[in-house]
Design brief:
Blueprint lengths: L2 E6 L4 H12 L6 E7 L5 E7 L2 H9 L7 E7 L14 E3 L2 E6 L5 H7 L10 H14 L5 H9 L6 E7 L6 E6 L4 E4 L4 E4 L11 E4 L4 E5 L4 E5 L4 E2 L4 E2 L15 H7 L1 H9 L3 E2 L4 E2 L8 H6 L2 E6 L1 H17 L4 E6 H4 L10 E7 L5 H12 L3 E6 L5 H5 L2 E4 L12 H20 L4 H36 L4 E6 L3 H16 L2 E6 L15 E7 L5 H13 L4 E5 L10 E4 L8 H20 L17
Parallel strand pairs: 18-19, 18-20, 20-21, 21-22, 23-24, 23-25, 25-26, 26-27
Antiparallel strand pairs: 1-4, 1-10, 2-3, 2-4, 5-6, 6-7, 7-8, 8-12, 9-10, 9-11, 11-15, 12-13, 13-14, 16-17
Helix pairs in contact: 1-2, 3-4, 4-5, 7-13, 7-14, 9-13, 9-15, 13-14, 14-17, 15-17
Bound molecules: 5-amino-5-deoxy-1-O-phosphono-D-mannitol (M6R).
5-amino-5-deoxy-1-O-phosphono-D-mannitol (M6R) binds next to helix 9 and helix 15.
Length: 608
């Protein structure tokens, strides 16, 4: 989604703003802008529709030595992508960049009838509102911002400047992340810590309801009710290498290929194969509490939801006494769902900032249910608001399509289930096969990626002209099929849907014709023969099947087979997902699309 950067210090502000925005590019955007100020308050405001490179081109003739400014990448919500709708917005003395949505902007706009609005955005209304308080003269900038925010409904991360006092930036947040980087003689602002790397590793993460007044040498934080907040400076854990392509053509391929390493990080110190145990410290629940859990609610969106669904199949296998419900956050937040008191909620999110998931977390907490985060982004809002958590530790995931996070989310949740099962006294001989197999997965993943990268590229080339795909699986292969279909549609814009094999005859079988191909996941196991019968039904109707299987004696006459060889049995579908990831990636490459930043999408969905 949108990105914010800001700089006040002794270096060139335009340089930081542009490089910072480039770091945030991966979040998805359609226009960008920066404003910088000289000592007298003279502003240089430059905006461009399109890419940061377009903004860079415009800035060549607007080069300034200014040492303070703010910048933004916009992902359109109110009003089309255009220069006039791009931020920073300038109203009166105020310059503002905003992430989030001002829900009552129409009402506020009506009340600000003495202002003429240039854009269609809600953000410009907020800039005008701040200006109206500032103009009254009795408020310094910070107070004017606070007065305005008290009237606002919605979500925001904002950075605000006034041309009357160009040496300070006021920032505030409610539901949209903001981090303040503390450097030597400089202070930096970003909506994502990755923009600060290479400048400082010291960061203050602003909390909802806080406002900070920032100068080159100071950061003063207060709540909207004017209570002082003592800033907690934390170390940013990510490093620069982790956010670079490392020789790969796209972040997506890098992230797919990184999975042996990233999963190892998820498992580090948590899996003890010698004693057949997992140890998860993060959830912070004593055994006595774990024993009482009777119900798990898993909440997520998109890939995080699919990961939850796949994990739920496993958790049900080895913890017979508990029920598992997996819910889509955007729906669940508005349902009148009753959650039994002996429940535990797993809040799954790579970014830790997804608006709907965060809203569910807050609702669930209100009901007094304990929450545990399955989060990747360290220090993110969800990670900070859950009662306990298990970081998946896969490092920054830059490509919009989530891959390495999925694999590790599944395993982190399965480990959470195993932790509960251990506490409930499930026989260790029953849990051991899961634990041993989990420990073997990084190496199994490495072998599969090495063997299948090139063949899957060739396979994708054969199917690149199709516009429709059906992904099929049963049992644990069904959520895997869902994730495969999501990946394909997301980056190659092919209409791909997933069905449980058993559902075919209830409708989807009618689709089978030459416009469709079918991606069938056929793990060896007790439902293999049933799935094969379903494949026969598709074949009999002229289906174009790509089968992915680990069955040694696979002899079906399908169009193409990806026969993976692995010692893993329980988690074979998770390994098959690697093939689906590679396939989606190479389909998008073959079609010539922007693989890392697919159209219309953003990495972190911080608005509803
Ligand atoms: O950051 P989150 O895990 O909360 O994000 C959830 C979804 O937005 C995300 O998984 C999305 O579906 C991905 N782009 C799928 O690849």
């Amino acid at each position: 989604m949108c990105g914010i950067v800001g700089y006040v210090g002794d270096k060139n502000a335009q340089d930081f703003l542009v490089s910072g925005l480039k770091r945030l590019e991966y979040r998805g955007y359609d226009s960008a802008g920066v404003v910088t100020f000289d000592n007298s308050g003279k502003a240089t405001l430059v905006k461009a529709k399109g890419k940061i490179a377009d903004l860079g081109t415009k800035l060549v003739s607007e080069r300034r030595e200014d040492k303070v400014g703010i910048g933004h990448t916009r992902w359109a919500t109110h009003g089309e992508p255009s220069e006039v709708n791009a931020h920073p917005h300038h109203v009166g003395n105020i310059y503002l960049v905003h992430n989030g949505i001002i829900e009552n902007y129409k009402e506020l706009k009506n009340a600000l009838s003495n202002y003429e609005f240039k854009s269609e955005t809600d953000s410009e209304v907020l800039a005008a509102l701040i200006d109206s308080f500032y103009k009254e003269g009795k408020y310094p900038l910070t107070n004017a911002v606070v007065q305005a925010l008290k009237l606002v409904q919605g979500t925001y991360g904002i950075a605000v400047m006034s041309d009357k006092n160009p040496n300070e930036i006021v920032v505030a947040r409610a539901g949209s992340p903001l981090v303040i980087g503390v450097g030597h003689g400089e202070t930096l602002i970003a909506s994502d810590a990755s923009a600060l790397l290479g400048h400082t590793k010291q960061a203050i993460y602003l909390n909802d309801g806080e406002v900070a007044t920032v100068t080159a040498g100071s950061v003063e934080i207060k709540t909207l009710n004017a209570e002082p907040v003592s800033a907690k400076v934390e170390e940013i854990e990510t490093n620069l290498a982790a956010i670079q392509k490392d020789g790969y053509e796209h972040f997506l391929l890098k992230e797919i290929m990184e999975q042996p390493k990233s999963l190892k990080e998820t498992l580090r110190g948590r899996v003890d194969t010698r004693h057949g145990m997992v140890h998860l410290g993060g959830p912070g629940l004593p055994e006595s509490e774990l024993r009482k859990i009777k119900h798990l609610v898993i909440v997520g969106c998109g890939t995080a939801y699919n990961a939850g669904l796949l994990a739920s199949y496993y958790i049900e296998q080895f913890t017979p006494e508990i029920t598992v419900e997996v819910v889509v956050a955007s729906e669940y937040r508005y349902r009148q769902a009753y959650i039994p008191k002996d429940s535990l909620a797993l809040i799954v999110s790579q970014s830790g900032e997804t608006a709907d998931t965060l809203a569910c977390l807050r609702e669930i907490k209100k009901q007094g249910i304990r929450t545990v985060g399955i989060v990747n982004a360290i220090g993110s809002t969800i990670a900070r608001e859950v009662d306990g958590g298990t970081y998946v530790h896969v490092g920054p995931e830059i490509s919009v399509a989530s891959t390495k996070a999925f694999t590790s989310q599944v395993i982190a949740m399965v480990m959470m289930g195993l932790t509960i099962a251990q506490a409930k006294g499930v026989r260790s001989s029953f849990l051991k096969p899961y634990i041993e197999e989990i420990a073997s997965l990084p190496e199994e993943i490495r072998k599969i990626l090495e063997e299948w990268n090139e063949p899957v590229r060739a396979l994708a080339d054969k199917y690149k002209e199709y516009d429709h795909a059906i992904y099929l699986g049963r049992d644990t292969a069904y959520p895997t099929a869902m994730e495969g279909a999501l990946k394909l549609k997301e980056i190659s814009y092919i209409d791909a849907n997933a069905y449980a094999f058993g559902e075919l005859k209830h409708g989807p079988l009618a689709l089978v014709d030459d416009r469709f191909f079918e991606f069938a996941l056929l793990p060896d196991g007790q439902l293999y023969d049933k799935a094969v019968s379903n494949v026969q039904e598709v074949l009999a109707r002229g289906g174009h099947i790509i089968a992915v299987t680990n069955k040694k004696e696979f002899d079906l006459e399908v169009e193409n087979v990806v026969k993976i060889s692995t010692s893993a049995k329980l988690f074979a579908p998770l390994l098959m997902n690697l093939i689906a990831q590679l396939f989606a990636y190479y389909m998008a490459v073959a079609k010539g699309y922007n693989v890392d930043q697919p159209r219309n999408l953003a990495k972190s969905v911080t608005v509803e």
